[in-house]
Amino acid sequence: IMDQELSEEALQELGNLLTSGSAMARLHAMWILASKGKLTEPQLFKALDDQAEGVRENALLIAEAKSQSSDVLHRIIGLCTDSDQRVRMQAALSLSAVSPETFDKNRDEILATLVKAADRPSDDWNFSAITLASKHGASALFATIASKGDKNHEPLLHSLAMVSSTTLPELQQVMETIAKANMDAATKEKLIARLASGNLPK
User: Fold this and answer.
1) Which tens digits make up the pLDDT trace of 41-57?
2) CA 56, CA 54: separation in Å to the nearest integer?
3) H-helix or E-strand spanning residue 128
4) Would you say 40 and 51 are in contact if contact means Cβ atoms under 8 Å apart?
């Protein structure tokens, strides 16, 4: 069916499957419609709100190509704080695909949401995804996270510090942030050591 033209009847049937009681049926119908360019924005929004985390996660992959739409973008941003850890990770990865211009237009909302995402239960994969999502504003996110003084954020601070230190002025800003941050001396020393172990900008 992926290689066939879809009749109006088939499109109707697939549309009906999007409200099926089976998450697998909803998932397959969504991908078939998306591959044919027939998945509507309301249908995508419904999938992004689906009760099954696997459907939400896959809907985010489809939403990446539509993030130029402000409505779609806001849905992606919102899912960065989803109840499911994998969905949160995919939302951050999808957010990392937006252009610098789109990021700047929505900078405050994106960074505020990523701060909230960092407070949710996370592993290194989640922290890496958050770092990628913040790449156009990593230094600002680093400063905000550092000010919280939460030791659970230490892995995220390490990755944000590296991304935020690609030039000498950026490195100086990061060092100043570390000096002023509400964190213990041991954590500061680890951050500085991590920066020193990398290829510092000249």
Assistant:
1) 999 999 999 999 999 99
2) 5
3) helix 124-133
4) no
